[in-house]
Write a structure and sequence with these properties.
The complex is a heterodimer of chains A (152) and B (401).
Chain A: H1 6-20, H2 24-29, E1 31-43, E2 48-56, H3 57-67, E3 76-81, E4 85-89, E5 93-105, E6 111-124, E7 131-139
Chain B: H1 6-10, E1 20-22, H2 24-27, H3 29-40, E2 45-49, E3 58-64, E4 67-73, E5 79-83, E6 98-100, E7 104-105, E8 112-113, E9 119-121, E10 142-148, E11 151-155, H4 163-167, H5 175-180, E12 183-193, H6 197-205, H7 214-219, E13 230-233, E14 239-245, E15 270-276, E16 280-285, E17 288-298, E18 301-311, H8 316-330, H9 337-352, E19 358-360, H10 373-386, E20 388-389, E21 392-396
Antiparallel strand pairs in B: 1-19, 2-11, 3-4, 3-6, 4-5, 5-10, 7-8, 8-9, 10-11, 12-18, 13-14, 14-15, 15-16, 16-17, 17-18, 20-21
The chains are: A alpha+beta (152), B alpha+beta (401).
The complex binds FE2/S2 (inorganic) cluster and fe (ii) ion.
FE2/S2 (inorganic) cluster (FES) is lined by residues 86, 88-89, 91, 106, 108-111 of chain B.
Chain lengths: 152, 401
């Protein structure tokens, strides 16, 4: 376990802030073309791990293109990532685990917790700037109310 | 004049009874109390799928309209249900949603119950000698349970007619897929919505709202013809909606569903569903089956549970694709279900404080296309059981105005 270098912590935070603003092209600019995204949760009801959402870069891109045509939940979702820890290191790849609280603020400015989750990010260090090659979101929260059209 | 004054707004719509519903069905406390007794106290409710309790001593704890229940597969293979509360001082006994246990011991004073609901141990039982309490008389409350096509139904009414009577063949469309396939629940999620429970079921009964979903505008309104659609009504207001088709490839990023993954009795582009009165819906969409149930928490909040079914033990790649198909529409990050939940909560905002006076369910298209016939049949059944008029529910049927 090592403290996460600033540049990588910044990447995680920037990717969150881009999604908070629903600036999907900025979010994708932090992702490598081989990016894999997944949201999973464990169901104690059926005693099984579940995948609730999984897309590659192209899948996310076409999904993002459609978001504006959907009926969307009101208000904002803001991701609050805590300082991550490095899980595994090689010369060109790092895994960072970050705890995240996602806060839902309605149009009247009332906030409540939307979800508690953990990101496991894989980051490619071989290029000029670090890029996300995977983000696996594991949800602790399983009741997401009306749900969401955009990734967490 | 376009907007209406207060009198006109509160006036029953000028259309035949049964074509509109008063907002009071959602908000009136006496109506809700009656619903708990006359509807949830009487009907057969789809509690879970058999695969959730596959082995002897497996249990599944579920909530039913505020009552904790526990579904247990006994050592004899029979599935039984009990109210999940202790005979001693009423504590909820089992708090895990599922598990395997040979006995259920209440945490409070350690009374224990077996897989058939019998009380098998009372610590220091001699203290009850004087009052005459015997463990033989302290069993759990059994809840009638019947299984049809792998679906576990329960009723709180010891005198209810058998399940087959209640269903009236409404699940025939699922005979093939649920009867022939060895299926398991691979997806479960639930949400408490800020809405009266009926509003959720109405999204399943209301075909007209496909315009709300861009996904359905692209994949459904462009596929098949309106006049190929049909609603078949069964007794007790169960209903089958069939003849709907989907062209998945019309939504960017989606592909047609492959033949190889389809389930028995379902074509890749088929979409049909059955609504069971009052609170369950089974949907078949090419490769996936969704079951949803809604139960009230109180008049203003409901618990919606979604399950996805898939062939048990299928290869990982097939399962992954099937999960994707389920999630595209129906997961908490799907393109459809979040929009339905949004609509349900929006209607609650309309009705909760009395802002909305009525809703209109008056579309007639020969029980085809986007007819509101399922909604009308549902409210007619509601009226029969409640002895109340949906258009004026505070008044009993037959009472003068
Ligand atoms: S309440 Fe269960 S043992 Fe006392
Ligand atoms: Fe819908």
């Amino acid at each position: 376990m090592t403290v996460v270098p600033n540049e990588l912590r910044e990447l995680v935070h920037r990717s969150c802030f881009a999604l908070d603003r629903e600036d999907f092209s900025e979010f994708l600019s932090y992702c490598a073309p081989s990016f894999e995204y997944r949201i999973s949760a464990y169901s104690p009801e059926i005693r099984k791990p579940m995948i609730w959402f999984d897309q590659d870069y192209g899948g996310l891109e076409s999904m993002f293109d459609m978001v504006s045509q959907h009926l969307k939940r009101l208000g904002t979702l803001f991701r609050h990532p805590s300082m991550g820890i490095i899980d595994r290191v090689s010369d060109t790849e790092m895994k960072i685990v970050t705890s995240v609280l996602i806060v839902d603020t309605d149009p009247n400015g009332r906030s409540k917790l939307f979800a508690a989750a953990r990101y496991t990010d894989t980051i490619d260090l071989s290029g000029t700037a670090p890029r996300l090659t995977a983000r696996f979101v594991n949800l602790e929260t399983r009741d997401l109310g009306v749900g969401s059209h955009i990734p967490l | 004049m376009t907007a209406r004054n207060a009198t006109d707004w509160e006036k029953a719509p000028a259309m035949p009874a049964g074509h509109f519903v008063s907002g009071r069905v959602y908000t009136d406390d006496a109506v809700f109390a009656d619903e708990k007794a006359r509807i949830f106290g009487k009907i057969w409710h789809l509690a879970c799928h058999e695969s959730e309790v596959p082995n002897a001593y497996d249990f599944r704890a579920v909530d039913y309209a505020g009552i904790p229940l526990i579904v247990v597969r006994g050592r004899d293979g029979m599935v039984r249900t009990f109210i999940n509360v202790c005979s001693h001082r009423g504590a909820k006994i089992v708090n895990e949603p599922s598990g395997n246990a040979k006995r259920f011991t209440c945490f409070y004073h350690l009374w224990s119950y077996d897989d058939r609901g019998a009380c098998i141990d009372i610590p220091r039982a001699e203290g009850y000698a004087q009052s005459g309490l015997r463990k033989e008389d302290a069993g759990l409350r059994a809840v009638r349970t019947e299984i049809h096509l792998g679906l576990v139904f329960i009723t709180l009414d010891d005198n209810a007619a058998p399940l087959a009577d209640f269903l009236d063949g409404a699940l025939t469309a699922f005979d093939d897929v649920l009867g022939r396939g060895d299926l398991e629940v691979f997806h479960y999620h639930s949400a408490v919505l800020d809405a009266n429970w009926k509003a959720w079921q109405e999204t399943n009964l209301d075909i007209y709202h496909e315009f709300m979903h861009v996904l359905l505008r692209r994949t459904q309104l462009t596929a098949g013809r309106m006049d190929e659609r049909a609603v078949t009504l069964y007794r007790n207001a169960h209903a089958l909606s069939s003849g709907l088709k989907a062209k998945y490839e019309n939504y960017a990023g989606m592909q047609a569903r492959p033949d190889a993954l389809t389930l028995p009795g379902i074509a890749p582009d088929d979409f049909f569903y059955v609504n069971l009165f009052p609170n369950a819906s089974l949907l078949a969409r090419g490769t996936v089956i969704r079951i949803d149930t809604v139960t009230p928490i109180d008049a203003r909040r409901c618990l919606v549970e979604w399950r996805g079914l898939a062939p048990r033990g299928e290869p990982g790649a097939a399962r992954l694709l099937r999960m994707r198909h389920h999630n595209q529409y129906w997961g908490p990050f799907g393109r459809n279900v979040p929009e339905d939940a949004f609509a349900v909560e929006a209607c609650e905002k309309g009705f909760a404080g009395g802002g909305a006076a009525f809703q209109i369910i008056a579309r007639e298209e020969n029980m085809s296309a986007q007819d509101d016939g399922m909604l009308r049949a549902w409210y007619a059944e509601w009226a029969r059981r409640m002895d109340r008029l949906p258009g004026d529910p505070v008044r009993r049927e037959g009472e003068g105005s």
